[in-house]
Every structure is written in structure tokens, then in C-alpha cells.
Specification:
Blueprint (H helix, E strand, L loop, with lengths): L20 H22 L1 H10 L20 H6 L13 E6 L9 E5 H17 L7 E4 L7 H13 L2 E3 L6 H10 L4 E4 L1 H13 L11 E5 L5 H11 L2 E8 L4 E6 L8 E2 L4 E6 L13 E7 L10 E7 L1 E2 L11 E2 L4 E2 L4 E3 L2 E3 L1 H9 L4 E12 L2 E10 L1 H4 L3 H19 L4 E6 L13 E3 L4
Parallel strand pairs: 3-4, 3-5, 5-6, 6-7, 18-21, 19-20
Antiparallel strand pairs: 1-2, 7-8, 8-9, 10-11, 11-12, 12-15, 13-14, 16-17, 18-19
This protein binds 5'-O-[hydroxy(phenylacetyl)phosphoryl]adenosine (DLL).
């Protein structure tokens, strides 16, 4: 029997997802104008950049005028560390989050009480669009702490009226016990961690297909359509893509509906644009480029035209759910995760999609890039099913050839494929690190 229940009645907060476009645009423009004025009045960086361009808040007369405004980039947040971009006095700030800072100075983001409430509403609408409802038991395995995932999902789930288990990441065996014993129906975590949970569940004799678990709210890292299919086939749940980033709010910028056709952007709160990553020119819907986001409601830390580095396209094509919110296509890559190997551009997601198309592979892999005798080398380590691993040499050789061919056909590169036994590669409890680039070490 299918685990999917009837579609619940629409939550009142979801009404904003279905606004007629003209009404949505009126709201966006009014919010944009107020936000730009606020940023101009209270944040030196925005005021200086606008002054330099000769632009004032009064110049934003239509939504198209957003193109007059300067971009903001991650380094601006680093340079302003810790509090330089706040538009609210510290006594109005009720929450901080920060990025982990493994790659440099951390960035700090801040929220007023209204910001926290707005964020909870965005997350509520996210859950509701995936059919999550009051009465659901949500296991929230996103990390609690400075990472936005845990608390973001938590407040949204509570606002929805669902029952939240604030288990955070890690302690995998306890996660599985709780999932089984509490009758969990919805799980929130990274897709890579969910794979680990499925696998550990099987080792403990817990098949997710036999549990009430119905829905996964997966994001915080790139994952492919092939990965979604693997997850759904192995667990019997529906896997939905949720997108967000700390600089804008955290999770809840965009979320898929039951039709799983790419995340709908909550456009009344976050204004999306797609630009050419090299020139910054705004591109039309349907064209792939870098996602740029402007917060329309944020008070403590408004963000104007933030360059996310995430590569996607916007589509206004009608969705079967009837939402008028445009969708972004699945974010498979970032402009800064491109590997240049022997002069050829390769994205980790291309490798993932290629190897998951081959039967006998497990969805656990690692890409190792190195340099030998002045030449770049690409090694792809892939786990294979225990049946295949213990099979004849011929079967392994065939699999090896199939994977090598699949990778070569999408990337144009010959990869050294290394087939490894199940459970060999390191598992992640949060965002998976798929690539080791030893050239940078
Ligand atoms: O990862 C917020 C989040 C938490 C989103 C939980 C979804 C669920 P950051 O740590 O600031 O925030 O990382 C943001 O992660 O710019 C993307 O590159 C990537 N990312 C987030 N969601 C997705 C997704 C959180 N669904 C960065 N698909 C973003 C692909 C994603 N990449």
C-alpha cells in the first residue's frame, strides 16, 4: 500500500502561494521600495554603493528598476564581520546564525523578532507545500546551532502545528530508534545523511519501507534527480527539495510542492533574478545562470541582489499545483564548485548523475582530484552493492567499464574508477564533502 496520504486541506498561510501575478507584483514592489529605503538609511555599505552609482531609493519605481541596484557578494559579509551589515540596533536583534567558516572568516546573520516570525512562516509554507500538516511527527535532523537548518525547520514545524522532534544531526542509531518508536512521518535532513540513515536502518533490521515515514524535506547540499530516485526507491518515501541560504534567511527560500517539479520561490518574501555569472546581465526566465536574491521583508539584515553562486534557471511555467510562484530548477551546481581537470570543466553533480544511472552502484561516492607528473588526475571512488562486490571478476570488470564510460560520456574525461565495498567511504551527518581536490592541499 502506498504511504502517501490524501492531500490535506490548504493551510491559510499557503494562500500567498496562489496570488494573482499582478497582486504579487504590487506586494513585491511596495516591499522592495521599503526595504531599499531601510538598507540605504541604515547600512553604510548599501548607501555608499548606491551613492557611487548615483542611485537613490526613489529611483526604484518598478520591479525592473532593481537592476539599477548594486550586487552584494559573500566577501561583503566577510568584510563586515561580525555586525557591519545590520540595519537594526543590537537591542532589536533576537537571533544570530553564522556560517561554519571552514573556508575563511565566518559570516554572521541576524534576525529581529519579526524576521524570525517571517522565517517561520516561510518554513511553514514550505512544509505545507509538501503536504506536511498538523498531526505529522517531524524528526528534525538538521543541525541545531549556528547552522540555520535546525532552528529554521523547527520554528516552521511548530508554526504549522506539527509535532517536532528536535533531534539535530548525528547519533544515527538513536535517530533510527526514534523514527521507529515515535512513528515519525516526516524527516528533515540533508539527502546524504538520509542515505546514511537508510543504510544504518537496514543494518539494524529497520526497513524504512515498513515505517510510517512518508515525506523527506531534503536540502542544504546539491543532489541530483538520480539521487532522488535512489532515495525514494530505497525508502518508499517522497523526497522533496528545499532550498535556502544563511545570507538570505536559511532554509525556506524555495520549496517543492507535491509535484516535485523544482522548488517554488516564496517570491513575496525573496525576489529572485537570474544573471549571467560573468557579466551580471539579467537573463530571461528559462535561461540558466546565477541566482541572485533580494530580501523583501528582512529587517535586521536586508540583502540587496545577493549573488548566491548557485546555478539554476527560473521558470514561470504553470505548475499542476496551481501555485503562481515561479520555480527554480534543481540546483545541481555552484559557479564555484566547478573543477577544471585537464582544462575541462567538470561539476560534481555531473559525475553523480552519471554513476547513479549505472545499476549496481550505491549512492556513496567520492571524487578525488590530484596532479601526477604535471597532469591532473580524476579518480572516482564508488561503492557497489555487496552482491556485485562478491560476484565474479567479470561482473566487476563490466561494472567498472560501464561507470568509466558513463562518466566519460557526460564529462569528456577518462576517470580512474575505483570500486569499493559498501560502507568504505566516510558518511556525512550534515553536508556531504564529495570532492577532495589534492591540488589545493
Ligand atoms: O544550507 C540552508 C538550508 C538548510 C537549506 C536546510 C535547506 C535545508 P547555508 O549553510 O548557508 O544554508 O548553505 C547555503 O547550500 O547557497 C547552496 O549552494 C546549498 N544548498 C542549499 N539548499 C540546496 C538545495 C543552508 N536544495 C548553500 N540544493 C546554498 C542544492 C543547496 N544546493
Amino acid at each position: 500500500m502506498s504511504k502517501q496520504t490524501q492531500v490535506p486541506p490548504m493551510h491559510p498561510a499557503s494562500a500567498m502561494d496562489f496570488l494573482p501575478p499582478a497582486q504579487l507584483q504590487d506586494i513585491q514592489l511596495a516591499r522592495l521600495q521599503a526595504m531599499v529605503q531601510r538598507a540605504f538609511d541604515h547600512v553604510a555599505l548599501f548607501r555608499e554603493r548606491m551613492d557611487r552609482r548615483g542611485v537613490t531609493p526613489a529611483d526604484v519605481r518598478s520591479l525592473c528598476d532593481i537592476a539599477l541596484l548594486p550586487f552584494t557578494v559573500k566577501n561583503d559579509l566577510r568584510d563586515a564581520y561580525p555586525f557591519g551589515l545590520f540595519a537594526s540596533p543590537l537591542e532589536e536583534i533576537v537571533r544570530f546564525h553564522a556560517s561554519s567558516g571552514t573556508t575563511g572568516t565566518p559570516i554572521v546573520v541576524a534576525y529581529t523578532q519579526e524576521d524570525v516570525d517571517d522565517w517561520a512562516r516561510a518554513m511553514l509554507r514550505s512544509f505545507a507545500s509538501a503536504g506536511v500538516h498538523r498531526g505529522d511527527i517531524i524528526q528534525n535532523a538538521y543541525g541545531y546551532g549556528l547552522f540555520t537548518g535546525g532552528l529554521g525547520a523547527h520554528y516552521g514545524a511548530e508554526a504549522l502545528g506539527a509535532s517536532v522532534i528536535p533531534i539535530s544531526g548525528s547519533n544515527t542509531d538513536r535517530q533510527i530508534m526514534v523514527m521507529r518508536d515515535f512513528g515519525v512521518t516526516v524527516i528533515c535532513c540533508t539527502p546524504s545523511y538520509f542515505l546514511h540513515l537508510i543504510e544504518r536502518g537496514a543494518e539494524l533490521g529497520v526497513s524504512f519501507k515498513d515505517l510510517p515515514l512518508r515525506t523527506g524535506v531534503f536540502g542544504a547540499e546539491p543532489w541530483t534527480e538520480e539521487m532522488r530516485q535512489r532515495i525514494e526507491a530505497a525508502s518508499g518515501i517522497k523526497a522533496y527539495d528545499i532550498y535556502g541560504l544563511s545570507e538570505i534567511v536559511g532554509p525556506g527560500v524555495a520549496m517543492e510542492c507535491l509535484h516535485q517539479a523544482g522548488p517554488h520561490v516564496f517570491e513575496d518574501m525573496f525576489y529572485p533574478e537570474i544573471v549571467d555569472p560573468d557579466t551580471g546581465t539579467v537573463l530571461p526566465d528559462g535561461t540558466e545562470g546565477e541566482l541572485v536574491l533580494t530580501t523583501l521583508c528582512k529587517r535586521a539584515m536586508p540583502m540587496i541582489r545577493y549573488r548566491t553562486r548557485d546555478i539554476t534557471a527560473l521558470t514561470g511555467a504553470p505548475c499542476a499545483c496551481g501555485r503562481t510562484l515561479r520555480r527554480i530548477l534543481r540546483i545541481g551546481r555552484r559557479s564555484d564548485d566547478m573543477l577544471i581537470i585537464r582544462g575541462i570543466n567538470v561539476f560534481p553533480s555531473q559525475v553523480e548523475a552519471a554513476l547513479l544511472k549505472v545499476e549496481g552502484t550505491l549512492p556513496h561516492y567520492q571524487i578525488v582530484v590530484d596532479r601526477a607528473k604535471g597532469l591532473d588526475t580524476l579518480e572516482v571512488q564508488v561503492e557497489v552493492t555487496p552482491e556485485l562486490f562478491s560476484d565474479t571478476v567479470g561482473a566487476m570488470e563490466q561494472l567498472h567499464a560501464d561507470i568509466t564510460h558513463a562518466i566519460a560520456s557526460v564529462t569528456g574525461l577518462h576517470a580512474e574508477v575505483r570500486l569499493v565495498a559498501a560502507r568504505t567511504l566516510l558518511r556525512s551527518e550534515g553536508k556531504a564533502a564529495r570532492v577532495v581536490d589534492k591540488r589545493k592541499l
